[in-house]
Sequence to fold (382 residues):
Amino acid sequence: MAKSSRTFSLGEQVELDVDGIAHGGESVARLDGWVFFIRHAIPGERVLVQITEVGKSFHRADAVEIIDASPDRITPACSYFHPGGCGGCDFHHISMERQRQLKTQIISEQFQRVAKIEIAVPVREVALPEDSGVRYRGRLTLHVDKSGRAGFLKNRSHDVFPISDCVVASEKLKMEKVLAKRYSGVDQLTFPDDVRTEVISIHGTAHHYRVSRESFWQGHIRAAEVLGEAALNSLQPRAGEYALDLYGGVGLFAKLLAHARARVSIIESSATAIADAKFNLREFSDVSFYEGDVAKEMSNIERADIVLLDPPRSGAELSVLEQVVRLAPRRICYISCDPASLARDSQRLAERGYQIAESAAYDLFPQTAHIECVFTFEPVIS
Fold:
């Protein structure tokens, strides 16, 4: 629909019928040819919104009154989740079941839009007490305002919204105590803030990992365990096989592959993380470590029967995918936290002879629009 001559102004209020969900978790509505991206709404609702950003092709807005509510609307567990409030979460107002349905829809729409691939990947619940979607994060980064108070940024803003508790934070982080303090000389805080040991159980075996403060570890308290098991199920490693772990971090997956008696090579750009990985895999002799840019270090790899990729949100570089395909692995496991970049890379792999063999998605970020996907690729049999 072409845009009408109607214009909208910052702060203006307008009634809208919400009919979709966007990649970033905002609901979508259309009026007079304009697209609106709306926080605190649910597809199917009629809402009164206040415009927060005026754009050339779309506007952003916040739902300030719910005229016709969705049956999936619930009372947020977080008192800071409201227009103008904390921007750390997206979906506190939506039932857990509907959250997963919307995330499933996001995956399908991104694959259709980016890669022209039709796919349905139901987002799976990751068991927590009563499927509450709270107290699941074992790692958090907070921001500090000029007065020394800690909190999260407001939505699409650099302004800090101070809080006194965070309902998605694990009890082990003791957020009430952390947030009661005042901080000086810092603008960010990461918790846990020291070297720690993480323990996961896979197929009845406990695996211990040293994780330094600067090293990446999954935020959800069960994520490493869930993804570790998913990766093993995807790759089905065999004793003596050559396994390649790209963007390998502290060796979460490399250790599981080594335990399965694969010959493992791990590539990671962070010096701190690769040091942790060497410590975590010190009991295994058939492991090679490469510190540096993944695309450059790939030139050192001559063979890989199975490959695991866990790249950042932006996805894998094209040159990395090309080098992976050059190695002709029998299986590729691609772990992604962004459906759009995963769709793009799925298309690139398809163009180079690898098809999606299996797909799974996990709700590791309740109350947000983020999704963790695990896709398995195999060579196309001609």
Remarks:
- Helices lie at 96-115, 175-180, 223-235, 252-259, 271-280, 294-297, 318-326, 339-351.
